[in-house]
């Protein structure tokens, strides 16, 4: 089994080049660590999970094989600690990583409950939003302009596998369907969450961490939705999304 220890190794350099592409140009990503790989394996027969196809197993030197290596039937490369640490961009390199190829985004009509992220710049925040949405029964995610890459390793770690449960699609503009569209916004004129109809079909949008919906031309038909708060100016975007997703699930259990 090949052991790579030098950064000058052509196979390692080719792997780095493939991983450099991000955003819409991304063709592959890395699932880092056993937990994330196993979360994908559990969801790989779902619509979202099928989008990620295994291409290459990476194992840290002096680490035993993972049971999924044989199941997936892909080639394994053994990496020296320095190389695995560099790929993982973390202080402690994982024992296992899985390179997966990304298939096309979904094109079918939107699901019954959709979370939307607009201009969420931090990959960890985006991952947390997706994790909350999946936990409370949302079935799909829309990602607007300026959003972090949902398949960036940090976003995948933040989502803890939610990216394998929710079909993700990027959009440059909002084309409203007959669903109920809400943008989380605590400004004047926003509808208090207690008074809003959150029944399906529901499209719940959260704006940028810093300036929310400022500068975004929201189409007519999108209601602004307020979460009552006291003593602070605003909530973290991921926290606000989690509260709204929970309230939806509380009223309308899946």
Break the fold down into its secondary structure elements and pairings:
Elements: E1 3-4, H1 10-20, E2 28-32, H2 34-43, H3 47-50, E3 52-60, H4 67-72, E4 76-79, H5 81-88, E5 96-102, E6 113-117, H6 123-135, E7 140-143, H7 153-159, E8 168-170, E9 180-184, E10 191-192, E11 202-206, E12 222-226, H8 237-251
Parallel strand pairs: 1-4, 3-4, 6-7, 6-11, 7-8, 9-11, 9-12, 10-12
Antiparallel strand pairs: 2-5, 3-5
CATH fold-type name of the largest domain: Alpha/beta knot
Biggest sheet overview: 7 strands, parallel
Taken in chain order, the helices and strands follow as EHEHHEHEHEEHEHEEEEEH
CA-based gyration radius: 20 Å
What is the strand arrangement across the widest sheet? Answer: 8-7-6-11-9-12-10
Number of helices: 8
Report mean pLDDT, rounded to a whole number.
92
* N-end to C-end Cα span: 47 Å
**Fourth CATH level, the homologous superfamily of the largest domain:** SPOUT methyltransferase, trefoil knot domain
**In the CATH classification, which architecture of the largest domain applies?**
3-Layer(aba) Sandwich
SSE class: alpha/beta
Number of DSSP E strands: 12
What is the class of the largest domain in the CATH system?
Alpha Beta
Residue windows where pLDDT falls under 50 for at least 5 positions: none
* Beta-strand percent range: 15-25%
What helical percentage do the residues reach?
A: 25-40%
Shape: elongated
Number of domains: 2
């Amino acid at each position: 089994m090949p052991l790579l220890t030098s950064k000058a190794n052509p196979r390692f350099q080719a792997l780095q080049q493939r991983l450099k592409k991000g955003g819409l140009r991304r063709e592959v990503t890395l699932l880092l660590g056993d937990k994330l790989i196993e979360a994908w394996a559990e969801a790989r027969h779902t619509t979202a999970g099928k989008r990620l196809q295994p291409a290459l197993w990476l194992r840290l030197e002096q680490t035993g094989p993972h049971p999924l290596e044989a199941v997936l039937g892909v080639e394994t490369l053994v990496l020296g600690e320095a190389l695995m640490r560099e790929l993982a961009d973390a202080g402690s390199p994982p024992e296992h990583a899985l390179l997966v190829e990304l298939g096309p985004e979904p094109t079918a009509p939107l699901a019954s409950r959709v979370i939307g992220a607009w201009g969420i710049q931090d990959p960890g925040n985006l991952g947390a939003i997706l994790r909350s949405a999946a936990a409370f029964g949302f079935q799909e995610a829309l990602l607007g302009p300026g959003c972090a890459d949902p398949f960036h390793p940090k976003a995948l770690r933040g989502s803890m596998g939610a990216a394998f449960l929710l079909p993700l699609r990027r959009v440059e503009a909002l084309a409203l369907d007959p669903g109920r569209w809400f943008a989380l916004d605590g400004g004047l004129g926003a509808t208090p969450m207690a008074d809003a109809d959150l029944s399906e079909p529901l499209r719940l949008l959260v704006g940028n961490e810093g300036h929310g919906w400022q500068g975004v031309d929201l189409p007519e038909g999108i209601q602004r939705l307020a979460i009552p708060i006291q003593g602070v100016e605003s909530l973290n975007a991921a926290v606000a999304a989690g509260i709204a997703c929970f309230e939806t699930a509380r009223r309308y259990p899946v």
